[in-house]
């Protein structure tokens, strides 16, 4: 009787790995470890939000990041406390660097988003003698992206934010094809669905993809 030659299929590795081969005890230990790690990270974030009231604008990036990741509800009190300090410094014109126009945009957007009364005239410092946004801003693509997002929080009659939106849309369209994958993806996502119109879950998934796949 002749032997039958059988070919073994060359299957790709299982996407799930050996997760379903683990015992319930092992899976529980992994879950407990991951939970402990997350809780430890949460404590670190709370500590970061609570320090250095002399440089409150440093908290803007932290608040923006945890909002985009969809975990801001864990830090509601800390965020509100941080915003009251940020707003105090904003109203008293302290700790403001005129060159950081991306930071100005983030500050404006987050304060308005959280119900604080912020005047759009803070963007006048980025206007040239001809009444247009300075051409030097074009090279700061991340800054333009932040200004684009801030402009969507405009109120009726705020001409400078209408001009900011037109300015950033035009130049971001040009920049989208020349930037690296991560930044061009952020631009494309923002143009399709700006932060003000984004659902938290969609925003969180986009942020995770950007963090996990930076190239």
Automatic annotation (TrEMBL):
Molecular function as annotated in GO: terpene synthase activity
Keyword presence, Transport: no
Record GO biological process: terpenoid biosynthetic process
Record-annotated membrane-spanning stretches: none
Sorted UniProt keywords: Lyase, Magnesium
Pfam families to which the protein is assigned, alphabetical: Terpene_synth
Domain Terpene synthase N-terminal: 16-190
PANTHER family recorded: (+)-DELTA-CADINENE SYNTHASE (PTHR31225:SF248), OS04G0344100 PROTEIN-RELATED (PTHR31225)
Protein name in UniProt: Terpene synthase N-terminal domain-containing protein
Organism: Gossypium stocksii
Phylogenetic classification of the source organism: Eukaryota, Viridiplantae, Streptophyta, Embryophyta, Tracheophyta
